[in-house]
Amino acid sequence: EDTSFQNKHIIFSIINQLLSINPNVSNQIKKFNSLPKVLVEYLIKFKKDSGRIDLNAVSTLSFSFTIENYKNLISVELIEILFDSLTKVKETNIMQNLIKLFIEINYIYKETDDINSNIFLQEFNKNENSNMFTEITLRILNQEKDNDFIQKILYCIKNLMDIKEKDIFYSKDLEIFIDIAINILESTEINELRSGILDILNKLTTFEEFYNIKYKRKEIRDLLEDCVKNDMVTTEVQEKSQNVLNNINQKLNNDN
Q1: 107: which residues sit within 8 A by CB, 6+ positions away?
Q2: How many Cβ atoms from other residues are within 10 Å of residue 240's Cβ?
Q3: Residue of higher predicted confidence among 113 and 106
Q4: C-beta of residue 117 within 8 angstroms of C-beta of residue 83
Q5: What is the 3 state secondary structure string of the chain?
Q6: Which of 20-34, 112-126, 187-201 has the lowest mean pLDDT?
């Protein structure tokens, strides 16, 4: 048994070396149906026995992850190991892969929309590495072209704000998000993306931090007013735009 365990350690080290040479190897390892269970059990046992994290195994998981293959293996222990890996991983692509898999895991809970049963959110709320999450998530959102995954990112950001009950952005990150929000509201014809952005803005505009930076406030208000009057968007988008406008106007009127 010990020999088998050591062999797995060596195998994941070799896989990680192959991935560093050619990331496309991930397409091959995703086809190994038995890998997810072996990998997850190994990661948890390695942490339990040694108190350490096998970063080669974490790398392999980050490249081989699909929600279909790993959905039934997700546990509190695994989420904790992956969160704790964020400060140990040095490679940008692995770190982004980890954030993407967190976003996918969060989306599993969309059907019930119950943040209290969402083990990813529970770990985010207590793990000291969660402060790294927002910056990397915004970087991914800024580069992402797949509209379905953009929706998942927006849903994740909304959930993070709900669980924290406060602004999760640093000032510079908040400016980046506002730029992204303006770009999506201006350019997309997909109402689901508009709705996702508006859900976040509705929360953001209840926080003092949003008003402290005074960043592109006029552009946001103009866009929201356009959405309210736009017959080409859904009633839901119009109503959400009005809600965000109401938040902003009420705050500014109170300050005056």
Answers
A1: 67, 152, 155, 156
A2: 23
A3: 106
A4: no
A5: CHHHHHHHHHHHHHHHHHHHHCCCHHHHHCCCCCHHHHHHHHHHHHHHHHCCCCHHHHHHHHHHCCHHHHHHHCCHHHHHHHHHHCCCCCCHHHHHHHHHHHHHHHHHCCCCCCHHHCHHHHHHHHCHHHHHHHHHHHHHHHHCCCHHHHHHHHHHHHHHHHHHCCCCCCHHHHHHHHHHHHHHHHHCCCHHHHHHHHHHHHHHCCCHHHHHHCCCHHHHHHHHHHHHHCCCCCHHHHHHHHHHHHHHHHHHHHHC
A6: 20-34
Contact 180, 194 (CB under 8 A): no
236: its two tokens: 């839901």
Identify residue 212 by its one-letter amino acid code.
N
Which are the contacts of 232, defined by CB distance < 8 A and separation ≥ 6? 189
Mean pLDDT of 74-90: 92
Alpha-carbon span 104 to 110, nearest angstrom: 10
Share of the chain above pLDDT 70, in %: 96
Rg, C-alpha atoms of the chain: 21
Tell me the residue type at 109: Y
Give the length of the chain: 256
The span from the CA of 8 to the CA of 49, in Å, is: 15
Q: How far apart are CA 91 and CA 54, in angstroms?
A: 15
| Residue in the block written with tokens 């790398």 | 59
Condensed to tens digits (0 to 9), the pLDDT of residues 36-57 reads 999 999 999 999 988 999 999 9
